[in-house]
Design brief:
29% helix; alpha/beta; 14 helices; Alkaline Phosphatase, subunit A; six-stranded mixed beta sheet; 2 domains; single chain
Length: 390
């Protein structure tokens, strides 16, 4: 199995096909504490201090560029399409994202430096406790206050209170969104829709000392979902991302460090490995609400139905997925330490897919049937993310 970012062996795999998140050692949630240490900010700014598995070179300013969907294994396989990023990856071990390996959870882990079980953004869709409604964490809902859903002080706010300048550079449409407020409040927000705008904003923000500037690009993930990571479209987009990263590096002063990371990887799901819960009757029995996403389904069960639901889903999926009651998934450490307020947001049963299996719902989530690439589970292709420093 791949080494941890500190060169040691990370926590053991759940089985030969799953990889545990390296919380506190070398995970996406450890990036901001690592940057804080490199900026020379107080060592007690975060409870865990400077992560031993993610030591970064000291510098007065850091620009963190997150490329949505750029899994470490994808970059390795397609190095020819991204010569700049691939060169940076040589000799550097990957980190992991958290569980589920999905954008909303990962971006909140980055922005708060907390494990999913603490920050509470537990997946793409999750039940609002006490209701029969799902919260879509990307679209959010005006009925859910993001500061109540995620009340913890963000890592960005901690850096700001310690004297650092913290800036988020992202699309204008995301300013003030529920996810932005939950994950990244406490930072100055600069709306920038085009590559040139983003690079210029990063150069301006990084002139502050000490400073952390965060940039986000979601185009690679969008392309992977719609065309797949084996497509020519995805390769072309990867090449454009590589050029953007190199242009960003060239525009930044030499004393500003560029750190390129990702929120998850991705796998393509063939037609013969797609399971539709609306076609297999047994998969709906005892399930009151279907949440999560296709690679990591979260099942909210009718009272007393958990054991029957686990048995039914295991019977249908066999070795194509790990089907666990919520308590068992928590005990395995998938979500880190889970707070009592966050626990009921997770499904009573969680279904983590192996290989390239996906579990769809043509009724509840019809758009899923038109996707090619997916993420959310614990396979190395989804969990391993690059940590590239220049």
């Amino acid at each position: 199995m791949p080494p941890a970012p500190d060169g040691t062996t990370p926590p053991g795999p759940l089985d030969a096909r799953f990889l545990e998140p390296a919380y506190g050692v070398g995970s996406l949630g450890d990036v901001v504490p690592a940057v804080a240490g490199a900026l020379g900010l107080p060592g007690d700014l975060f409870a865990g201090g400077r992560p031993a598995g993610l030591l970064l070179p000291d510098a007065p300013a850091y620009v963190v560029f997150l490329v949505d969907g750029l899994g470490a294994r994808l970059l390795e396989r397609h190095a020819h399409a991204a010569p700049y990023l691939s060169a940076l990856a040589q000799g550097h071990a990957a980190a992991t994202c958290g569980v589920p390996s999905t954008t909303a959870t990962s971006l909140t882990s980055l922005g708060t430096a907390l494990v999913p079980g603490a920050h509470g953004v537990v997946g793409f869709t999750s039940r609002v406790p006490g209701t029969d409604r799902l919260l879509n964490a990307l679209q959010w809902s005006k009925r859910v206050d993001p500061t109540e859903w995620q009340p913890q002080r963000t890592a960005f706010a901690r850096l700001g209170a310690a004297g650092a300048s913290v800036t988020v550079v992202n699309k204008r449409e995301f300013a003030g969104s529920g996810l932005t407020v939950a994950a990244h409040r406490g930072a100055d927000y600069v709306g920038a829709d085009k590559v040139g705008e983003r690079i210029a904003a990063a150069v301006t923000a990084s002139a502050q000392r000490p400073s952390l500037t965060y940039l986000y690009d979601g185009d690679l993930d969008w392309t992977g979902h719609r065309h797949g990571v084996a497509s020519s479209q995805w390769l072309q987009q990867l090449a454009m991302i590589d050029a953007e990263a190199e242009q960003l590096r060239e525009a930044l002063p030499t004393h500003v460090r560029l750190l390129v990371v990702a929120d998850h990887g991705m796998v393509d799901a063939p037609d013969d490995n797609r399971v539709d819960v609306d076609v297999v009757d047994a998969l709906r029995d005892g399930v009151a609400l279907l949440g999560g996403e296709a690679r990591f389904r979260q099942l909210y069960c009718q009272r007393g139905a958990v054991d029957d639901v686990v048995a039914a889903w295991r019977g249908v999926l066999g070795d194509r997925a790990e089907v666990l009651a919520r308590e068992d998934a928590v005990a395995r450490g998938w979500f880190g330490e889970v707070s009592s307020s966050v626990l009921p947001r997770y499904g009573d049963v969680v279904v983590a897919c192996h290989g390239d299996t996906v579990v769809l719902s043509s009724t509840d989530f019809p758009y899923e049937t038109g996707l090619v690439g997916f993420h959310g589970s614990l396979t190395p292709d989804e969990m391993l993310i690059p940590v590239l420093i220049d």
